[in-house]
Amino acid sequence: MADQASPSLIEPGPDHPGFGIYVHWPFCAAKCPYCDFNSHVRHDPVDQMRFARALAKELSHYAQRTRGRLVTSIFFGGGTPSLMDPATVGFVLDAIADLWPLSPQVEITLEANPTSVEAQNFKGYRHAGVNRVSMGVQSLYNDQLRFLGRLHDADQAKEAIRLAREIFPRMSFDLIYARPGQTPQSWAKELDEAIELAVDHLSLYQLTIEQDTPFFKLYRNGKFDLPDEETSVALYEMTHETCEKHGMPAYEISNHAKPGEESRHNLTYWRYGDYVGVGAGAHGRLSLPNGRVATSNEYNPERWLKLTEEKESGVISEEILTLEEQGDEFLLMGLRVREGIDIGRYERLSGRAISPSRIADLIEHGMIERVGNTRIRATREGFFVLDSVIADLAS
Q1: What is the pTM of this model?
Q2: Contacts of 233 (CB under 8 A, 6+ apart)
């Protein structure tokens, strides 16, 4: 595609999104009541090496179509990738290294849950090549962890954070806020503690109620309430101000980092770069000779495994995106990020121009602002109504 640079040793940046590999491990020890990700509980042991061989086969399928691309990031997501044996992780990483050139600065992230058994594997993951861990802590209070259906307690979470800081060059952890009954005062105390525990990155998400989750049914039946809009706004504002004060500003709506410590893999998504997605339910975006292609894999782990073993991959859908779809995706992803979007790149992707009068109107209303001569970004006020901002720009 004209929009994509040819394979090179250029490191990622706003104008060079990078090329990522996403590996989905779909298994969890238990399903959290708020989670709508593709995660599955299996009571019988999983044949990890059988899945690893299938992942390697699917990786090979995509390597043939993206030969020579420089891999700038690898991300093991889930599910719970920290249920994988270190040998399984190493097998998959070796397969990737055999198929593509890796950047000397390649970021290799593994999502983890901070139970004591999984934390014991951290040294094995580091030896396999993982250089960044992202942990689903979600709260530092035991009563809130029980509400969120987590299997660990606060002490286990803090011990896992300490261990990760010792073993990995980079680490991050997630917290969920705007929980039932939460006040700005109680969140301020928890957030201060989290910042003290963190090294360079925090992901801080407001609790949302997704359909087809246990929380959806409980919330619909009035079993708990969420903070009202005014409190949610206050919590969001305080989160951004507190993190910024401690040198970890928001570089994306829900992600905070010291400058230079942003998640490079997630920036590839938000900068609308190319990435291969392998594993059950994984998605990908690839610029190929026939256009920009959206790939989607079989959702069920066992069906994905059977498909991949019988064929070259578990993909069930490959869609060539229209120019309009590419433009819409670019806006949706890029305006989440503090660096914003390049207007010229949007016009090349979408085949249409953004109305100067719409840009001027959104600037006048404080929803977006210019960054230099070629970029625009959402303001903090614009983040609250980002869907409307995107719709205005795309119309």
Answers
A1: 0.93
A2: 384
